[in-house]
Structures are given as structure tokens and as C-alpha cells.
């Protein structure tokens, strides 16, 4: 077996626009739904807003220089739709698109391949006000308007495109990742309706990349956690099959087969949750083929059988406190499956199971299932970091997490899985989607707190130097 990763393997990291950029309502940008959701999180939980985030908008040159110093050959980031088209459609914000031209040029001048995500939870607020955002079919047309403009603009500079970030996570955590107007609260069918509209948008983006970008490659960046059965009781194993179908294959079958997973769709129909599918939708979805699948892998999940005793469906809880065990509940689909804690795995402070083998398992399984190349667009360890008095961050826990996940990725490659890139979360510290800035992920510490943005000074963590060595040896030193 080769000791190193394959030649040409892309090494980098990821961020998303509203979590890192700041300048949320300046320089011609108007709010996105995430700017609104995060303002609410600030009021409810004291988490930082997206107004300044990591101030990447003003630090992007410094950030790219840090990426270059680590030896990055790729950087995955998202474009904020509301920076390009502040009203969702209509007139382009010249200053906004210029920011991305400058960023992409800076990356390319430094030999870093841009991997662009078209949409990362941040729908222009104007479209929520106009027609309730992703709940309306109109959004698909407006997404096409935006995507076509951006893809055309960067068709000669960007080869790798990713479409809609984590549809699976949007369905599971609908309120956090998508603004839901009051009148739709508690209506679970819209989770799957929104997802259907996103499937159409994804297919359109795939077609556009294939039509417009010479040699362009496109795929979805999917939040993916393989599901294990709690025991080898046959019922638990069946529950695992059900959970895999509804939580994972329901998305991947769309991307690669252009169809909804049967058992999942039957379950949704039986419970009045299935999306309305119009004539021509499935044909369009079939035409929008993906070239690869990008995985955001943080953890595996576990489930058990659950009898239907009329207790009703519930979706995932969340841990807001950062104290282990504070997770507010498990997804339950009576008569289908119920998620539960895996007693075999340790977790982060936010109850995310730490499972490098799960990454190996997911990559093996997905490659056997679809035979398409894979890449990592997120993988990381959310933690409270401490800045020491002499200006250091000793994040050995994060180094340990990534070392083990990279070793697992290599084992999958050694078994024949085609892997294009490793872009973990995150290049620099940023605003967590659910826990503010105190939960950190980056190779680079951004000196700010939830209350005080300070100067957002950049400080290299121990993991920064570790990753530099990993990249330099093409993974050979792992
Ligand atoms: C992924 C998202 O789900 O997980 C990122 O794509 C997010 O946007 C990351 O930041 C980590 O989750 P959290 O809730 O800790 O920010």
C-alpha cells in the first residue's frame, strides 16, 4: 500500500459565507435568513450574530496567506446569494460579486483550487418576505437565476462546484437552518417539501455546471452520518435499514439515481409528510446528474426499534449548553426507528459521537452503492479552545480527532475508494450554526467572543502546524 495519499489529492479546509464573512448588511449586501435567525439566537442564547462573524470580508487576504502557509491546494467556501443579489433576483450588487472575484483570484494566485458552494443555509431574506422562501416553488426559478449568473461569472476559474449544503440536516433541524414563518410552525410536511424544491434546485445547478463550465464537476455537499443498530436484535437491524433509508439514501438516491428511496417515500406518504411532486419534476431531477458526492462527516448515529404506541413523530433535539448529556431528545419515527445514544462511543461536549471508523464505513458503503468519487467538505471537532497567556492554542484533542479520521480515510482509499479531497471544518474559527463562536473548529483562532468582536485577530493553533506537516508529507506522516 502507498504510504501517502494519491497524487493530486486536494488538501484544504472549509467555511461558509454567513459564518465567516461578516459585513452582513453592509457593502450592498442585504440580510439573509441566517442573519435574521442569528439575531434571534443572540437574543435567546447570547450567541454572536452574523454581523461581523470572523470578519473574513476584511481579512480574506490574510486568511488566504494562512491557507497558503499551511500548504492548502483547495479551499471550500460558499457564495452568499444575498451579497450577489441583495433582493434575491434583479440587480446584481457589483461590490458583492467583486468580493468573490477578488477572493477567487487571491486563491488562484496562491495555487489554491476554489471549491464553491452555491448555497449554505443563507437564503436572501427578501425571498422569505416575498413568498416564504424555500416553502414556495418560486424559489427554484429564482435559484436558477442566481446560480446561472454565478456559474457563468466563474466558469473559467472554478472547476469544482457544490450545490446545496446539507439537505438532510435542513430537514432534521428545520428551524435552525431555514426560517419558518409562524403559520408553518409544527407543519412537518414542509420539511420534505422544502427538500423537494432543493432537489430541483440541485438538479438545475448540476445541469448548469455541465453546460457552462469546461471540465466542470459538481455534486452535493451532504451532511452524512451512517446509522448503526443499537444491538443485533433483528428488529434493531431493521430499524437501522429504515433510518438509513429516510436519513441518508433519501438524499443520495436522488443525487445518483434520480429517484426517491421507496421505503422512505412510502413511510412519508403513510404519515401525510410526502412532498407534492409536479409533472416533470422527476425527469428534471434525473437529468441533473452528480459527478461526485461531498460529505460533511462529523459523527455516526445509532438507532433502535420503536413500536408505534401513538406517541407521534419527533425530530432531533439539540445541545445548546456544551455540557455533555444536555441533548434535548432523539428523533423518533414510531413503527420505523428511534435514534439513541451509542454506548460504545465517546462524544464531544455537544454530544456528537466521535467515530473515525464511521467515516471509513460511510466511504466504503457509499462507493460500493454508487461508484462515484467522494470528497470531504466538512469534518471537525467543535470545542472550547483556550488562548494561553503567551498567545498559543494547544488543541491536541482536535489533532487527535483529525489524525484518526485521516487514517480512516486512508484505509478507505486503500480499499479502492476514490477520494478527491479533504476539506475539514474549518479553515479559521467561525460562527457555529447552533452554538455561537465559543464552539470553535478552526486551524486558526479568531480572537473574539460571543459578546465582543474585538479585532478578530488571527492566531495559529497547534493544529495549524500539525496540518502543515500532514500536507507537506501528502499524508505520509500520519
Ligand atoms: C455542518 C454545517 O452541519 O456542521 C456547518 O454545514 C456547521 O455550517 C457545522 O457549522 C458544525 O455545526 P455547528 O452547529 O457546530 O456549527
Major beta-sheet overview = 8 strands, parallel, barrel
Q: Which structural class do the helices and strands define?
A: alpha/beta
List SSEs in N-to-C order.
EHHHEHHEHHEHHHEEHHHEEEEHEHEEEH
Helix content: 40-55%
Ranges with pLDDT <50 over ≥5 residues?
none
Mean pLDDT score = 97
Descriptive account of the structure:
This protein is α/β, with parallel strands linked by helices and 478 residues long. The chain contains 16 helices and 14 strands. The strands form 3 sheets. An 8-stranded parallel beta barrel has the order 1-2-3-4-5-7-11-12, surrounded by 5 helices. Strands 6-8-10-9 form a 4-stranded mixed β-sheet. Helix 7 (138-154) packs parallel to helix 10, helix 10 packs across helix 13 (281-287) and helix 14 (356-370) packs parallel to helix 15 (396-414). The longest helix has 24 residues, at 189-212. It is globular and about 55 Å long. The structure holds 6-O-phosphono-beta-D-glucopyranose. 6-O-phosphono-beta-D-glucopyranose binds at residues 16, 19, 165-166, 169, 223, 296, 378, 382, 425, 432-435, 439. 6-O-phosphono-beta-D-glucopyranose (BG6) is lined by residues 16, 19, 165-166, 169, 223, 296, 378, 382, 425, 432-435, 439.
Amino acid at each position: 500500500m502507498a504510504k501517502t495519499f494519491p497524487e493530486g489529492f486536494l488538501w484544504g479546509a472549509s467555511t461558509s459565507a454567513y459564518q465567516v464573512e461578516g459585513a452582513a448588511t453592509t457593502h450592498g449586501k442585504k440580510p439573509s435568513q441566517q442573519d435574521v435567525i442569528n439575531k434571534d439566537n443572540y437574543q435567546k442564547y447570547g450567541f454572536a450574530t452574523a454581523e461581523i462573524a470572523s470578519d473574513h470580508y476584511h481579512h480574506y487576504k490574510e486568511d488566504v496567506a494562512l491557507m497558503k502557509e499551511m500548504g492548502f491546494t483547495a479551499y471550500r467556501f460558499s457564495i452568499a446569494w444575498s451579497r450577489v443579489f441583495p433582493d434575491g433576483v434583479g440587480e446584481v450588487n457589483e461590490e458583492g460579486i467583486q468580493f468573490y472575484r477578488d477572493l477567487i483570484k487571491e486563491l488562484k494566485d496562491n495555487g489554491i483550487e476554489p471549491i464553491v458552494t452555491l448555497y449554505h443555509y443563507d437564503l436572501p431574506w427578501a425571498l422569505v418576505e416575498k413568498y416564504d422562501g424555500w416553502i414556495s416553488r418560486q424559489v427554484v426559478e429564482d435559484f436558477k437565476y442566481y446560480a446561472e449568473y454565478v456559474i457563468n461569472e466563474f466558469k473559467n476559474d472554478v472547476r469544482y462546484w457544490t450545490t446545496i449544503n446539507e439537505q438532510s440536516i435542513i430537514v432534521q433541524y428545520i428551524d435552525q437552518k431555514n426560517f419558518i414563518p409562524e403559520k408553518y410552525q409544527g407543519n412537518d410536511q414542509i420539511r420534505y417539501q422544502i427538500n423537494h424544491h432543493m432537489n430541483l434546485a440541485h438538479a438545475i445547478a448540476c445541469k448548469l455546471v455541465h453546460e457552462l463550465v469546461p471540465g466542470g464537476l459538481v455534486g452535493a455537499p451532504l451532511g452524512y452520518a451512517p446509522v448503526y443498530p443499537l444491538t443485533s436484535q433483528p428488529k434493531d437491524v431493521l430499524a437501522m435499514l429504515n433510518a438509513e433509508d429516510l436519513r441518508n439514501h433519501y438524499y443520495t438516491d436522488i443525487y445518483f439515481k434520480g429517484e426517491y428511496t421507496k421505503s422512505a417515500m412510502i413511510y412519508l406518504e403513510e404519515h401525510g409528510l410526502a412532498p407534492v411532486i409536479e409533472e416533470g419534476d422527476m425527469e428534471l431531477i434525473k437529468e441533473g446528474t452528480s459527478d461526485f458526492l461531498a460529505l460533511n462527516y462529523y459523527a455516526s448515529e445509532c438507532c433502535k426499534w420503536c413500536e408505534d404506541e401513538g406517541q407521534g413523530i419527533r425530530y432531533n433535539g439539540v445541545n445548546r449548553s456544551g455540557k455533555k448529556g444536555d441533548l434535548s431528545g432523539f428523533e423518533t419515527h414510531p413503527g420505523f426507528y428511534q435514534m439513541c445514544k451509542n454506548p460504545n462511543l465517546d462524544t464531544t461536549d455537544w454530544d456528537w459521537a466521535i467515530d473515525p471508523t464511521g467515516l471509513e464505513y460511510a466511504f466504503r458503503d457509499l462507493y460500493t452503492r454508487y461508484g462515484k468519487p467522494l470528497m470531504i467538505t466538512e469534518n471537525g471537532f467543535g470545542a472550547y479552545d483556550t488562548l494561553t497567556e503567551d498567545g498559543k492554542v494547544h488543541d491536541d484533542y482536535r489533532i487527535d480527532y483529525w489524525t484518526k479520521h485521516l487514517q480512516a480515510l486512508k484505509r478507505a482509499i486503500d480499499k479502492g475508494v476514490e477520494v478527491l479531497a479533504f476539506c475539514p471544518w474549518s479553515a479559521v474559527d467561525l460562527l457555529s450554526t447552533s452554538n455561537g463562536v465559543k464552539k470553535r473548529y478552526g486551524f486558526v483562532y479568531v480572537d473574539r467572543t460571543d459578546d465582543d468582536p474585538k479585532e478578530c485577530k488571527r492566531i495559529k493553533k497547534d493544529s495549524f502546524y500539525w496540518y502543515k506537516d500532514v500536507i507537506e508529507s501528502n499524508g505520509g506522516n500520519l
